[in-house]
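Hey, does this match?
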Amino acid sequence: MNYTFLALTFLLLALPARAQTPPAANPEDVATVDAIMAATYDVISGPIGEERNWDRFRSLFIPGARLIPVSVRPEGVTAAVSTVDEYIQRASPYFVQNGFFEVEVERKIERYGHILHAFSTYESRSKPDDAKPFARGINSFQLLWDGSRWWIVTIYWDSERPDQPIPERYLPRNSP
């Protein structure tokens, strides 16, 4: 038996599948930090019955990107790591069945070289003109500047809860 061949086969099977190349982005969506952040919120927002433009969403992310919501349950805190396509599969039915509009209300940025971290405080509503959001929280965006465009590497988020209010420094200055 050829153990080298067997070991190499197991090694290749253990490697992660190569991430798919995303669709080409609209250059205006990825030219600036403001643009890629706005495009992200825009593409996930929409009324009941409206399918989102998932190719536009995919175009914002670097191959291999991850979306990670934090969940707090009685058994503990977890982070559900998903690929862009796994997120789309999970979120799409909810977005079509429920109106969902998410907007950024504040942002704090740290940048070094080609990497950027943004704490983006969000508010979620069922309709854009709802007086109060049904949810608020912070999206932690990790972005990459490749010299010609911005890419989302990760969005990692946690929602506000009664025992975890959003700190004042992450709220708009005119917020109550």
